[in-house]
Give the backbone structure.
Amino acid sequence: MTVPETDARAAAARPTARRSVIVDGVPVEADVDPDLLRDVLLLALERVAARPRRHRRAFALLVAPPGAGKSTLAAVIGEEAAARGLALDVLGLDGYHHSNDYLADHPADPDDTSPDAAPLSSIKGAPATFDVVALVRDLAAARNDSDGAASWPVYDRRTHEVSPERRPLTADLALLEGTWLLLDEPGWRDVASAADLVVFVDADPSDLAERLVARKVRGGLSRSEAEAFHARSDHPNVIRVLADSDRTRVDVLLRLHADGSLTHQGGHQ
């Protein structure tokens, strides 16, 4: 069934509601379109939850380029799901980052064997810095969880490492947010093929640039350091997500605008 396209101008004129949510342990204020949240996102999740399936747990993917606010949106969706009585585990891809030691010991370019080769840590956040094999393994285990023992790794924003403790999964519906979940490349294709619902946030790279630089400055970098990191890592990642994600799998397409608002652009479900 085709999801009706929302008139962008009408959507932009809708009133938004300020919501306070916790993202990675930090309180964040977000302006949310309640109609988009209720009539598009939550409705899609409720339909997935009610749909007959052979596997125990359904997975929805929320995919967006860096800086598009996917972690905040996922937290808002989780809060709204709880308010509506929909059991939902909100999960992140960041728990599958390789350790910082691994990133420091492996070159960003596997063909560069020189002593001064740039390490993977210099491009942390790129696909090569994630353990996609472990992700696919855990995703399959969680979908087919017969004894309720499935769990998910958690990324610690204070140490910038994966926590030694894993989070138990309790709901039969999970929302997994991440940058590379639709990447049309070996390994990552297995993630997308396991999804019961895919939400993709499209954006203009120029609208994301300042958001990404400002985020690094808030994290402690100088302005020049943040701009250098953006040029080296964030911007190439943004372009790669937008160019190399398999959009044929998208069920709900959203658009992030320069003012930070989201509109529903369509999709198929």
Remarks:
- The CA atoms of residues 65 and 242 lie 7 Å apart.
- The chain has eight helices and ten strands.
- Strands lie at 17-23, 26-32, 58-63, 89-92, 151-156, 161-168, 173-178, 197-202, 252-256, 262-266.
